[in-house]
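Exercise (ungraded).
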Amino acid sequence: MSLPFLVFFVCAFVAVLGALLLIISKEPIHSALALVLVMISLAVLYLMLGADFIAAVQVIVYAGAIMVLFVFVIMLLNAGSEERTDWSKMAKYAGMPLGIFLLLWLGHWMYHSAIGKEIANGSVATSSSVSTVEMSKMLFNQYVFPFEATSILILIAILGALVLAKRDDQ
Amino acid sequence: MMNIVPISYYLVLSAILFGLGVVAFVFKRNIITIFMAIELMLNAVNLAFVAFARAHNQLDGLVFVFFVIVVAAAEAAVGLAIVITVYQNRQTLNIERINLLKF
Amino acid sequence: MPILEHLWIIIALPLLGAAINGLLGKSFSKPMVNAVGIGSVSLSFLAVVEAFREFAQLPAAQVPWIKTYFTWITAGAFKVDFALQMDQLTVVMLFVVTFVGLLVHIYSTGYMAHEEGYYRFFAYMNLFVFFMLTLVLASNVVLMFVGWEGVGLCSYLLVGFWFLKQSAISAGKKAFITTRIGDFGFTIGILLLFWTFHSVDFVAVFKQSAEMPVEGFGPAGVLTGISLLLFIGAIGKSAQIPLYVWLPDAMEGPTPVSALIHAATMVTAGVYMVARMNPVFSRAPFAMFVVALIGTLTAFFAATIGLVQTDIKKVLAYSTVSQLGYMFLGLGVGAYAAGIFHLMTHAFFKGLLFLAAGSVIHAMNGDQEMGHMGGLRKKIPITFWTMFIATLAIAGIPGFAGFFSKDEILDAARTGAQANVWFYGLGLIAAGLTSFYMFRLIFLTFFGEPRYDEHKVHVHESPWSMTVPLILLAILSTCGGWFAAPHLMGGTDYFEKFLHPVFATYAVNPGIEQGVSLAGAPGAAGEIASSPMMELVHALTGAPVIIALVGLFIAWWFYIKSPETPKKLAQSVRGLYTLVLHKYYIDELYNAVFIQPLLWISTNIFWHVIDEGVIDGTVNGVARGLRESGGQVREIQSGNARSYATWVVIGAVGFTVLMLGIWLGIWEMVR
């Protein structure tokens, strides 16, 4: 087996492991750390796919900022381990089958999608990695409107978070 | 570096992660954990986008991933602020105890 | 003005009177109500007189005179016009209805003077006259049925006039429902008629039936079927066996109502109908036989019940049933003119009897029991003499109207084309019984010692508004018979000749008289042509006269000479007496056999099971089902966010399956 395959399978395995750990853990902090594990492995996979900018953004923003925020909140609220309440019949009986079904269904389709086969055949020529310059060009030319809109969105989010988290007596 | 690993492998992995995210979303009782499951689902989708971007040899998928990450950040900020407010009011993070949204 | 062009005026005037009195009468003064009520009928009567004058001048080819005013119903081949017809039979009926009706209206102003709802009474009476005239003038059987039903309605309204009295309401219902049973047969008869002849107009039907042969003796055959079904309607309306039970109960209504509706006009509608349909009936010998049979049995049966009744109006009611039986007997043996003649004379003397009885009741302050009367003849002489004349007429004493008509009928039963010795025999006995119970009534009421307390009841003669109609009717009861007196007595036999075209035009053997109409007509079986004097003697000593005198004598013996005899006789045949007194328990029988089971079925099956269970259950069940399913759906919103999350996932999965499975699958296939 060649190196790419090996790296792929290792990263895939770690990602799935992380996801399983997220489900299984009783403490939310353990789940958070599992999620970080998933994100790191996904970053490696992005690199393998040639999207180095995205891999960097993933690590910096997602794993570095968002997950840190999660961890802060968990520690702040000090919620403790999960209770074992079980009041939703629907979730208990329908949840697992649905999830598994979705997994399998999507997996089947993804596996048998035409694009995948074509690339496996090697009929599509692929270049190496994508340069950041080209991506930024696209970002500021074609997608400038969503770009600006998301900046406003971030502003709103900041304000919202401020208002919501403020205590009432202030 | 030639892409020897078929794109469909990445897509299957994305599907698996998404499915596990759904399971976690339905089964966990801590609000924050549920949030994290949402993030997991978003990541799985990101992976799919990147894979397809590579497959079609286009950059649009990557740009989309960029935006997904940004919006996820904003959403996480606001969502956690809400979680904090809920905790301040109900003193619990068990989603089943926050059941006032009913008939 | 040419009334014949505007025949509708005759029936429109009473309708107008009914509408005015009905809608506005509440605020009218009594004279105003009288003016409208009596005025409309008298104008109608004048119109009838004028119409007759014009009719008499018509050439024979234009009779029957038909005026079509508008088309009422068209449904495919079924076409019913509002068309009025005038022929000789119509003329007779019109005179009877309007003249007797007018007299009864005048009488009512006196009799009902102290009643609540005075205007309502006159409105109903005018409405009745309207419907009766429609019945008589109709030129097709459906329009006649409209009148038929309408008079039934007015009878119900008028019998139940004192609607706060439970017995009156029940009597009204009984009348309407019993005649309804007959009307059901009538309706099917109309359908069968239309199916056979493809028309409901009398002229068209008679023309077609004239082509058809006489049917065999038996219930099969379409003409027999039609005749029998229509006759069932007549059984109900004209109170024959087995549907006569409503007429004695209808005496709950005011006496003028009994006089007009239940003696002179409505109950004779059946007789008129059979006479009108004579071309069809003549070709169905079995139906004629049934008509005569039921008529005879009813005549006899009702007379027996009338023997022992003690309520003055009940005696007259059973007498009416009995006399109607006579009319049907006459029709059934083919003597149509005789039957109609008896209808006319009966209208006079029975109407007079009822009005006079009303006068007696008025004098006795509302008491109708003959057991409380006695010795009234000195106190109310006009009433007494007019009632006595009417009794002579009904008993068939020679010279008075009833004698001629009864005699004709019995002669036809004995010697006519469809003569039958049993019919004659029973009819004769019934005549004797009639004479007996009518004179019994006279003797109990007007003779003997008063059986009431003279200090409590102040007997007084009725006002002139009541006595003048009595006198007029008494005159007609005396002279009315001479219309049809056989020429042997110097009479003109005018009635018979007048009605000849109606019964002969479509007769089985046109040109030859239907049946035998008069004693002494040449060619009648068993009779020899003889001199007028011989025939006079023959007629005067005939069996009907003898039996009438016998009845008179027995009544005199029982109630004047030795008044203890009736009681002793009743004691000795106690069982039979009780049976007859209680009207053979027929009402109780009907109640047990028909009414109670029907009530039980209606209550337990139709009401509880079907109406409450099935219909209410379905409607309520739908509502309950919806509410319960709504309640179930409501519980999806449990407030539990995890279940909401699961629902979201379900939706997402479904959508994914839709997109990937179906759309992409199709796309893959297309590729």
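Further reading is listed at the end of the chapter. For now, observe: The radius of gyration of chain A is 21 Å. Residues 43 and 59 of chain A are 7 Å apart (CA to CA).
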